[in-house]
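Cytochrome c oxidase assembly protein COX20, mitochondrial: structure tokens wanted.
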Amino acid sequence: MAAAREPQEPEKKPFKLLGILDVENTPCARESILYGSLGSVVAGLGHFLMTSRIRRSCDVGVGGFILVTLGCWFHCRYNFAKQRIQERIAREGIKNKILYESTHLDPERKIKSSNSS
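Answer:
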């Protein structure tokens, strides 16, 4: 009897932007690119509606893309790093709580014993 096999999905190749940036697995890359493209459209179209100069509007659109993408990228990466630091501090605190609980090195035990004296 042949065992029923589940259909295997072929492995997905990650989507790489310009062949270097793995948008799917890099934190903040997707959001930065999306906001940058939206900023490009808004800046280019807004400049075109005000001046009716096509070439200059394209230049403004590219500049808007670069500025908005980099701004979103640095903001998101800063918040991501800050969150990782907070997680590491919490993880160390939990580890120390488990390690020192009910020993003479437990800080809560020292606080309780000084309050009851």
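Residues 27-103 form one domain. The radius of gyration is 27 Å.

Cheers.
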